């Protein structure tokens, strides 16, 4: 699985962000492994953090948890992943 965490500061233009993220996403696609990208677009309470998962069949559940002691809500995703099996010992 390829996991990528991203953050775009407010003074960072979307066009530059796209120029950086898109080539990395294409490179990750070539690995033919599941991809999870998580990040925040802007530091404001009106926008949610995002989580992108490819393929979407990996997603078991997702949602937003509202935290009463903070102005930030938690975006989450539960994935269907299997623990790799250990090779047999002789």
Mean pLDDT: 76
Question: How are the strands ordered across the major sheet?
Answer: 1-2-3
Structural class by helix and strand composition:
alpha+beta
Return the string of H and E elements: EHEEEE
Can you tag this structure with a few keywords?
alpha+beta; two-stranded antiparallel sheet; flat; 90 residues; 1 helix; 33% strand
Overall description:
This is Endonuclease/exonuclease/phosphatase domain-containing protein. It comes from Pocillopora damicornis. There is one protein chain. The protein has 90 residues and is α+β, with helices and mostly antiparallel strands. The protein has a domain at 14-62. Helix content is 19%, strand content 33%. The chain has 1 helix and 5 strands, in the order E-H-E-E-E-E. The protein has one helix at residues 14-30, and strands at residues 2-7, 35-40, 50-54, 59-65, 74-79. The strands form 2 sheets. It has a 3-stranded mixed beta sheet, with no helix packed on it. Strand 4 (59-65) and strand 5 (74-79) form a beta hairpin. It is flat, with a radius of gyration of 16 Å. 0% of the residues are buried.
Present the secondary structure layout.
Layout: E1 2-7, H1 14-30, E2 35-40, E3 50-54, E4 59-65, E5 74-79
Parallel strand pairs: 1-2
Antiparallel strand pairs: 2-3, 4-5
What's a concise summary of this model?
With 90 residues, the protein is α+β, with helices and mostly antiparallel strands.
């Amino acid at each position: 699985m390829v996991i990528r965490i991203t953050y775009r500061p407010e003074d960072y233009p979307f066009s530059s962000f796209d120029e950086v993220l898109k080539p990395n996403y294409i490179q990750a696609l070539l690995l033919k492994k599941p991809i999870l990208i998580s990040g925040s677009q802007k530091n404001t309470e009106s926008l949610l953090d995002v989580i992108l998962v490819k393929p979407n069949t990996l997603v078991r559940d997702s949602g937003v948890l509202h935290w009463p002691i903070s102005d930030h809500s938690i975006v989450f995703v539960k994935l269907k992943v299997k623990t790799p099996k250990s090779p047999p010992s002789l």
